[in-house]
Specification:
- The protein is of the alpha+beta class.
- Helices cover 20% and strands 40% of the residues.
- The chain folds into two domains: 6-40; 44-177, Nucleoside Triphosphate Pyrophosphohydrolase.
- It has helices at residues 84-96, 148-156, 163-177, and strands spanning 6-15, 20-27, 33-40, 44-50, 55-63, 68-72, 75-77, 101-109, 120-126, 141-147.
- The strands form three sheets. The protein has a four-stranded mixed sheet, sandwiched between helices. Strands 1-2-3 form a three-stranded antiparallel sheet, with no helix packed on it. Strands 6-5-10 form a three-stranded antiparallel sheet.
- α2 (148-156) packs across α3.
Length: 181
């Protein structure tokens, strides 16, 4: 098996400021033609920012698709051509007022590969203090510091449903256990 699909036609349904949605006609390796619904996304970044006491910075904000307030790691989308490392430093500063030091790249994740090409670049860093936020005009969020062990329990209890944040918490705990951060 080659596990490949060949695009024969792309029909754009919507092209907005952030997302592009399209339905593609593709040919499977057995020759059968099927439709694929896709959402193109510019990608994003997220960071586990740790205090000297191994508390992690979180932001609480209303997430419209879920119609609820979500507790999550600082994150944001990539601007066209933007370097992920520069983007994560920018997002941390804007959302929490913090400057990171000792950054650690934790790789990329595909949040929902069944319908979007979004890639999230994950980082961890150390911070000494927090300062004044520099939020976008449409951002309203609160910063919280939570000890990592407590955050892990919150994941286990279903109190942190955000996938990128769960991954960051668990990866950083592993790095701390192995004394790599």
């Amino acid at each position: 098996m080659k596990l490949q699909e060949t695009t024969k036609e792309e029909k754009i349904l919507y092209e907005g400021h952030i997302l592009k949605m399209h339905v593609d006609t593709v040919v499977l390796e057995n020759g059968r033609m099927v439709k694929r619904e896709c959402v193109d996304h510019p990608g994003g970044v997220s960071v586990a920012a740790l205090t000297p006491k191994n508390e992690m910075l979180f932001v609480k904000q209303f997430r419209y698709p879920y119609r609820q307030v979500v507790l999550e790691a600082p994150a944001g989308k990539l601007e066209p051509g933007e370097d992920p490392f520069e983007a994560v430093k920018r997002e941390l500063r804007e959302e929490t007022g913090s400057e990171g030091k000792q950054y650690f790249k934790l790789g990329e994740i595909f949040p929902s590969p069944g319908y979007t090409n979004e890639r999230l670049h994950l980082y961890a860093c150390r911070i000494d203090s927090t300062g004044k936020q520099d939020l976008d005009e449409d951002e309203f969020l609160e910063v919280e510091k939570i000890p990592l062990e407590k955050a892990k329990k919150m994941v286990e209890q279903g109190k942190i449903p955000d996938a990128k944040t769960q991954i960051l918490i668990l990866r950083v705990l592993t790095l701390l256990r192995d004394k790599k951060i």
